Amino acid sequence: MNDMWQMIGFAFAISLAVCLMIGPVLIPALQRLKFGQSIRSDGPERHLQKQGTPTMGGVMFFFSLILGTLFLAGDSYFTYFLLACALGFGLIGFIDDYIKIVKKRSLGLTAKQKIVGQLVLSIVLSVVAVNVMQISTEVLLPIVGGSVEFGAMYIPFLIFLLVGTTNAVNLTDGLDGLASGVTLIVALGYTLIGVLQGQMAVIVFSAALAGSCLGFLVFNHHPAKVFMGDTGSLLLGGAVAALAIMTKTELLLPLIGIIYVSEVVSDIIQVGVYKWKKVRVFKMAPLHHHFELCGWSETKVVRVFWAVTAIAVLLTLLCYSMMMGNIRL
Fold first, then answer.
1. Total domain count, the chain
2. How far apart are the C-alpha atoms of 269 and 173, rounded to whole Å?
C-alpha cells in the first residue's frame, strides 16, 4: 500500500512539475505567435477584457500526462487506452484551435467535422476496449449493486459516453480555472477509486491528470494568463470518460461529473425551450454564465462549482462503496 501511495505522489509531482516548467516557456511563445483567444461579443461584458489572452495552453497536458503516466504505469493495454482517449480527443481539439487561430477561421472545424472526428475516434476506442482489452459489457448499478448486461449495446453506449463527456467538459471551460479545477477534483476522486480497485494504470493516470490540472491552474486561475482551448478541454473530457470506462463506473460519471452534466443540460434546455417557446430559461447558457449575469463574480462561480464537485466526489465514493458491498468487480 505504501508503494501505491508513492506512485500516486510521483505521478502527481512529475505532471505538476512538467506543467510548471513548460508554462513560462509556452505562454510567451503563444503571445509572440499571437495565438490569442477571441471573446464572444454576446457574452458577459466583463469577459471582453480577456480578448487576446493566449490560448491552446492545453498543449501542456500532452507532455505532462505522457511523462507522468508512462514512467510509472508500465507497458499495458490499459495505460495506452487511457492515454489514447485523452490525447486522441486532445488532437481533435488542437486541430480545431489551429484552424481558428492560425488559419484565422473563427469557427475552426465545422460542427459536422468536429462531431464526425469525435465519432470515428470513439468508435475505434470502444471497439478496442471491448474486443482487444476485453472490458466487460456489464454496467454496474449505483447504490443498489448488481449489474446490467448491455451486450451488443455496450459499444454504442461507450460512444455516447465518450462524445458526451468530451463536449460537456468543453462547455465547462468558460471561466478562469473552472474546467481545470473541476477536473482536478474529479481526477483525485478517480485516483481513490483506482486505489480501491488496485488498478495501477488508473491510479497513475488519474494522479498524473490531477497533477497536470493543478500545474495548469497555476497559470489559468483568475486572471488567467493562458486558456486551454479545445486542445485542453477535449483532452480532459476524453481522460475523464476513459477513467469511467476503466473503473466500470460509467453510471456514476453523471454524479462525479455533475458540473459537466449541469453545463450540458442548461445549454440543451436553453436552446430547446427558446426554439419551442421563444423564451430563455437562463439569463445565458451554459450555466456558469447564468450565475455571472445574476451578479456573481467570476471567482465566486468557480469556487462554488469547485465545492459542488468536491461534494459530488464524496457522494460518488460513498455510492461506490455501497456498490462494492453488493458486487465484486
1. 1
2. 19
